[in-house]
Specification:
The chain has helices at about 85-90, 110-120, 155-165, 185-190, 205-215, 240-245, 265-275, 330-340, 345-350, 355-360; strands spanning about 15-20, 25-35, 35-40, 50-65, 65-70, 75, 75-80, 100-105, 130, 135, 170-175, 195-200, 215-220, 250-255, 280-285, 295-300, 305-310, 315, 325, 375-380, 385-390, 395-400. The chain is α/β, with parallel strands linked by helices and about 400 residues long. Strands 5, 8, 9, 10, 11, 12, 13, 14 and 15 form a nine-stranded parallel sheet that branches. Helix 2 (about 110-120) runs parallel beside helix 3 (about 155-165) and helix 8 packs across helix 9 (about 345-350). It starts with 12 loop residues before the first strand and ends with a strand. This is N-acetylglucosamine-6-phosphate deacetylase. One of its GO terms (molecular function) is N-acetylglucosamine-6-phosphate deacetylase activity. Its cofactor is a divalent metal cation. Keywords: Carbohydrate metabolism, Hydrolase, Metal-binding.
Amino acid sequence: MQAISELQNTNKITGIRGNILTDTGFQKTAVWFENGKIRAVGEAFNAEEANMQLIEVGEAFVVPGFIDLHMHGIHQYLIDNGPADLKQIAQIILQYGITSFLPTVCPRREGEDISFLKTLAVVQSEGANILGFHLEGPFIKLTGSLVANTIAKADPARVKALIDAAKPYRSVFSISPDLDHVTDIIPLMAADNTPVFMTHTAANVEQTRAAIALGASHATHFYDVFPCPPVTEPGVRPCGIVEAILADEQISVDFILDGVHVDPIAVKMAMVCKANGPGRVCLITDSNIGAGLHAGRFVFGENGEVEIAYKGAPVRKTADNTLAGSGLTMDQAVRNAMQYLEIGLPEAVTMASANPARVLGVSDKKGKIEAGFDADMVVLDADYNVVQTWVSGERRFVRGE
């Protein structure tokens, strides 16, 4: 196998022959790419010609690169620790098949959040693509594991300042539809077709519909920190934001599929409800510091000490044992989807690639192995473990190198 350093010339037409995932399923063929873009799928070129190279991966699976919409950290690194950690994270997540991601930032006090976001915005990743910053707060109602004194009122000026601080990257906000005056800020967040996520909320149906009408389009770590509405009529099951989202075919959702954060039955229910809305169910990791490592204790920024009981376990605060993100990696999420949801590899991969690409409005260039798309791909072995990860036509991770 060629070393990574031997395959950095993206101007050379490169082919990978293996079991390629296409719209019709897996095909034993080749995918060809040049200058970071896929040129063709099939035996379109003669690899013996000049300026071409063909990489044989045998019976391995070649799938679109995974896209994580919500992740805070990996191994001993945390995005909230600053740009140095972000650079490390962008490199490490390649080994788990992530080729693009939204680094997720916890809320900070006003002023501190602007300056911190500016330090992240100068980072140019040499690993996975940064598609924007996911701001999980400060405009949320229920804190969950986040620091309570960083939660803010709806403030258009602050929204604009955060958007400016993140440039040239996009700011993808998570908001609570039941936050007072949140309808004043959603249109600002949704400008330029930027998705707005809903989370940390006990919103009622009317509040949810109002947020959706103004541009909210996705629910992140769905069911988690989405408490059940109170019973007002004995014997009558109440409806709230969860039911409103499930009933709306246009709203997409994502899940932390680690076997603890959400019951697989609930995910299956969402898949049935969203069956007529293509690509509406996604996998995320919501990974925290310590994810991908074995048991240990770590510091989750201002949120305090957290603990992972075993590799892949949920992250829990040591103070009260409450959940604080996951120890999940995206390749494990894909394997879990196959096991828990009883689906095949193509469907599980779609939930980690094409569907999140659609959420972010980049489904015309990411999430598929198809001519004209970015050459972001992952090679999986027979057990669905990551062997190679390609980003923009560059092989940036090889297992064992």
